[in-house]
């Protein structure tokens, strides 16, 4: 057995925030805190009826990790979280009212770095088998669950911080990842989530951001004969609600972003010999994502994006490669609302006046298959109801795009390759509403 040497240095400075154990990953790879975490302002209980939450963070919040690895033949797992304001809780078997106000004006930074200490000429030194990294930075975070009761909420989240940044880096030009590698980097200015189980939720949520948001993943690996995924996700305002059993949901969501700020996601992966590598970048200024399993669903969304730019950029460079996949998706305003029951009502208003850009680039010398896909959209909406339930679905859709929308793909094969498949799409407004599925 080869000798191993691992050095990990961790520094954390937190104000009005703390790291948490991540719960299940949500859509778009957003991780939210556990409902019973120690930082909960309103803990899950069947005795609570009214919860009032007020949080104001004005200080810088920074969480950082650095790991230096010479040889590690086992798991390497690094997770780093920074949050300005965080509120978790819920109500069970009783009706409840929640009023929450969160204001963050302090910069929020989370960074994770994994270094290979192998020097030039030393090849095949494992930095982890496998390697998992997660870096998450959030200005305002709220998570609330209702179980067998009714929840009525008023949420106000405001971000005026200079920035919310999340950065992940693997620096291993002489190192190897032998059995899968995955890096997830996420940055959000305002994040609010609701969950319903045999419950009814009525919410009125306002999210306002005047903050630069950036998620960046960069990696350099000498050799990897295994699947590797390097992902970055940047959202300015993000609202999500999910009903996993019978119940009903009614949400009024208002989201606004400033013209002086940006939402950016970058993924950059390079290596000498990469068998199966994928890079993804996803950037959205305003997101409303609501799903329901049973009962009625009403969503009234008003989204206004004025960001200077919403940018998703993915780049992959490999001297030798098997399969390389580069995808980038950028959207000004995004609405997703679906119900596996028959009643759906959607009132959607989207105005995008900012630039939206998506770009993917692959450079390879000798290899096999390269796939590129970019999607840039000013306003996007999708809604659905159960088609086999005699659906009752009504939609009022209003979309206006005044911003430039650009999608760009670039491929450079300097030696020999087998195939290149490339798709680039730029769309001002897109809306899809349909009925489908089984009850």
């Amino acid at each position: 057995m080869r000798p191993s040497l691992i050095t990990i240095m961790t520094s954390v400075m937190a104000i009005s925030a703390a790291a948490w154990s991540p719960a299940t990953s949500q859509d778009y790879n957003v991780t939210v805190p556990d409902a019973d975490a120690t930082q909960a302002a309103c803990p899950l209980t069947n005795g609570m009826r009214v919860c009032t939450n007020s949080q104001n963070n004005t200080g810088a919040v920074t969480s950082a990790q650095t790991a230096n690895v010479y040889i590690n033949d086992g798991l390497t797992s690094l997770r780093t979280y920074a949050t300005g304001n965080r509120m978790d809780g819920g109500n069970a078997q009783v009706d409840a009212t929640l009023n929450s106000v969160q204001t963050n004006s302090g910069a929020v930074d989370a960074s994770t770095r994994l270094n290979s200490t192998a020097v030039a000429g030393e090849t095949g030194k494992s930095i982890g088998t496998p390697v998992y990294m997660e870096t998450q930075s959030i200005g305002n975070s709220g998570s609330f669950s209702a179980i067998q009761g009714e929840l009525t909420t008023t949420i106000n989240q405001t971000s005026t911080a200079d920035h919310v940044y999340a950065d992940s880096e693997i620096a291993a030009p002489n190192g190897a990842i032998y059995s899968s590698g995955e890096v997830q980097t996420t940055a959000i200015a305002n994040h609010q989530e609701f969950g319903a189980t045999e419950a009814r939720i009525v919410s009125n949520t306002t999210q306002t951001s005047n903050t630069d948001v950036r998620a960046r993943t960069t990696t350099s690996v000498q050799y990897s004969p295994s699947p590797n995924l390097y992902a970055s996700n940047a959202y300015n305002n993000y609202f999500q609600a999910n009903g996993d059993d019978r119940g009903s949901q009614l949400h009024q969501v208002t989201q606004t972003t400033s013209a002086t700020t940006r939402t950016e996601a970058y993924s950059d992966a390079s290596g000498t010999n990469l068998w199966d590598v994928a890079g993804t970048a996803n950037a959205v200024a305003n997101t409303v994502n609501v799903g329901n399993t049973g009962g009625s669903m009403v969503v009234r969304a008003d989204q206004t994006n004025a960001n200077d730019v919403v940018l998703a950029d993915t780049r992959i460079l490999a001297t030798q490669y098997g399969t390389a996949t580069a995808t980038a998706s950028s959207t000004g305003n995004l609405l997703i609302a679906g119900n596996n029951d028959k009643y759906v009502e959607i009132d959607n208003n989207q105005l995008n006046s900012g630039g939206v850009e998506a770009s993917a680039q692959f450079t390879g010398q000798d290899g096999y298959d390269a796939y590129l896909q970019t999607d840039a959209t000013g306003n996007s909406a999708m809604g659905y109801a159960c088609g086999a339930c005699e659906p009752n679905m009504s939609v009022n859709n209003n979309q206006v795009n005044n911003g430039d929308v650009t999608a760009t793909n670039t491929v450079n094969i300097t030696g020999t390759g087998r195939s290149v498949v490339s798709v680039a799409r730029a769309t001002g407004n897109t809306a899809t509403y349909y009925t489908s599925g089984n009850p």
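The chain has no helices and 25 strands. The first strand starts at residue 5 and ends at 13.
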